[in-house]
From TrEMBL, chains A, B:
Keywords: Aminotransferase, Pyridoxal phosphate, Transferase. The keyword Ribosomal protein does not apply. Belongs to the class-V pyridoxal-phosphate-dependent aminotransferase family. Residues 37-353 form the Aminotransferase class V domain. Coiled coil: none annotated. This is Alanine--glyoxylate aminotransferase family protein. Its cofactor is pyridoxal 5'-phosphate.
């Protein structure tokens, strides 16, 4: 039986993830592996923890990746703190709010939801009012909602949660590394990031962080695996009066032991993905968080100018736009999927559609991480204009690229890092 | 803030995993990524499914990786079929049997165990007797137990399970790609493999397969996520009379939809790890399963000859030795960890210790995948002799390498593939 060598096309990936991987990260991934308890490897584990603390803007002790895609991190965080019957409030403003409810329900929580129109975010005061009414143990909220391209302000909600002794857990998958996210300053107790979006590392890891408030709950539910537990571990278990965490793979108390100096074997850390994450984080830290956030906005501005100059309109409320995702209303009568297909087939450019009620209504263009580059923005605008013309859309021809170039020339020098 | 470039030593990795990654796999991992719904990528997904069916020796429709380390695959399989209160029989002959009990307990099963001495395996007749007594819904069993280096015969147990309408799920993490494992012929209903052992792909994916018997249970528990479900999905859910699967991330009914032609978005597939798995499987198929199994035995023989010629004794019953892991009794009075450390520090060779009751009693030397090469065996034997001499052990000096070379020269030509 023979299979051909891996032959993949080179794409311009302008979706909200997975996006183009930084070539430095790809190179790091071809590094020969070392064993999981090799001092050379545990040093890398510690470095990644330190780097993650900077990216998350936190002093938390615990900051490490879960070995799975982003939602594995979200489930690890939630299932480790949810005890059956716990009340959770999930304010929903897009698809990934629903995902949070799914996870919580499966782990036995009593889920309370509130919803706002897709394309908008919540007024923090409304969420706080609902927290006061429901008295949940946990508030679970999305920061950057990729399905609608919106950014939920978190700080006031975080402060209120802390004051009312409610745990505040945040899905920062689409925002981390692309727009500001201050874990400590915004009173976030537990946060999950993504690799395949603004960090420009392949999908397959979910960096998380959590503070002592969460650690305390996890520790109270701790169980060490029978095959490797000590007499002391088993004694502590007998004194445990909280229910065990409902997953072995996603049990943060065990992951914590593995990432601590105890190095108690849980899984075998995904060596090459960790090499990739380290390199991806290193690139972010070299660029500097503020520079990086500015760069994302800088290119977003050019993209938006181009799209509007072409005559397209943006979806959603401008006041809460997620800088890393731009949602475009599909013009009346146009088959959005046909446009996407032509972009991919003729230009090798990928943009995204959306989910549920927005399917067929909007396109989503990502400007994330390594994909967020001038040539990608310009190429996408030019290609989209051509494809729309082919689809009979009356666009203002020639204006998109001029507007984008104008936007780029408004600032004499591009921000550092790009 | 600056961090240095990734600087890792080149090791000779002779543990039972993670082992050295084939250079072709490392190279594939530096390939630029494409989007998750790009036809170029879904083609790769389909190819990997086809390749996995060959490796698993099955005609099952479902064969795909779970995006997580091996135990995530085991938990995905078990949590998707366990309904609270289900009886499960777990015969335990090492650490990873305990892991199976942990996973099952956390998902609400009523777990029945039977144990045999570590270093031995079960007489299938004894397991069958216990199945008849307990009447479980599921038997969960380890095939290759790396903690003790034993290989459990499965066929008779599988046949008995099928006859009694019991589900038979197997942990083939340490055996797949290194020793024979016939999913269909041995009546295995669900099986989980590992990447970082005999497939010589980095840790981070868990290839699994399961048949219609399991698919039927999964389908009866199916729930499509609210943010992406259709009216038809929601109608079917209302008719569901089985409890929902207790994990979102590890829910095989959702993974199945993502790996099917429906391509219903669940997670974002770990692109680069899938490239790696594809290349790793391609290498196995090029070598041929039988050649590959023979090669593993061929090098195991040389290693064992060398160890015994040195005067060391092997742990465990020879009749059920796992060909890919050789367990060596640590000589009386020797600090096993000190020997391991010196091997690593002076020679750059990593061998493993073991867990629980065997900690400090045995070393475990893996001969898996790309690590299973003549130069690695010879280097390890020579180094171990030197280190043992340094530790004051009276070994038969000079004999180990001669015995290994003799073993190699007994066969005129090495098997194809190495």
């Amino acid at each position: 039986m023979t299979y051909s060598d891996l032959n993949t096309p080179l794409r311009t990936i302008m979706t909200p993830g997975p996006v183009e991987v930084d070539p430095r990260v790809l190179r790091a991934m071809s590094t020969p592996v070392v064993g999981q308890f090799d001092p050379a490897f545990t040093k890398i584990m510690n470095e990644v923890m330190e780097m993650l603390r900077h990216i998350f803007q936190t002093k938390n002790k615990w900051a490490f990746p879960v070995d799975g895609t982003s939602r594995s991190g979200m489930e690890a965080l939630l299932c480790s703190i949810i005890e059956p019957g716990d009340k959770i409030l999930v304010p929903i403003f897009g698809r990934f709010g629903y995902l949070l409810t799914e996870i919580c329900e499966r782990h036995g929580a009593e889920v309370h939801t509130m919803e706002c129109t897709w394309g908008d975010v919540f007024d923090p005061a409304d969420v706080i009012k609902e927290i006061k009414r429901v008295h949940p143990k946990i508030v679970a909220l999305v920061h950057g909602e990729t399905s609608t391209g919106r950014l939920q302000p978190l700080e006031k909600i975080g402060a209120a949660c802390r004051e009312m002794n409610v745990l505040f857990t945040v899905d920062g998958v689409a925002s981390i590394g692309g727009t500001d996210l201050k874990v400590d300053e915004w009173f976030i107790d537990g946060l999950v990031g993504g690799t395949q979006k603004c960090l420009s590392v392949p999908s397959g890891m979910a960096p998380i962080t959590y503070n002592e408030r969460i650690e305390e709950i996890i520790t109270a539910r701790k169980k060490v695996e029978r095959g490797i537990s000590t007499a002391e571990d088993r004694k502590q278990e007998l004194e445990r009066d909280h229910p065990i965490i409902r997953s072995n793979y996603l049990d943060l108390s065990m992951l914590q032991d593995y990432w601590s100096s105890r190095r108690l074997n849980h899984h075998t850390e995904a060596t090459t993905m960790l090499y990739a994450l380290r390199e991806g984080l290193r690139i972010v830290l070299e660029e500097g968080l503020e520079n990086r956030f500015n760069r994302h906005k800088f290119h977003e501005n050019a993209l938006v100018s181009g799209l509007e100059a072409m005559g397209l309109t943006l979806f959603g409320s401008p006041s809460c736009k997620l800088p890393t995702v731009t949602c475009v209303n599909i013009p009346e009568g146009v088959d959005g999927e046909s446009v996407r297909q032509m972009l991919l087939q003729e230009f090798g450019i990928e943009i995204a559609s959306s989910f549920g009620p927005l399917q067929g209504k909007i396109w989503r263009i990502g400007t994330m991480g390594y994909s967020c580059r001038k040539e990608n923005i310009l190429f996408t605008l030019g290609a989209l204009e051509a494809v729309l013309i082919r689809h009979g859309v009356r666009v203002h021809t020639g204006r998109a690229l001029q507007a984008a170039l104008d936007s780029y020339s408004l600032i004499h020098r591009e921000p550092v890092g790009q």
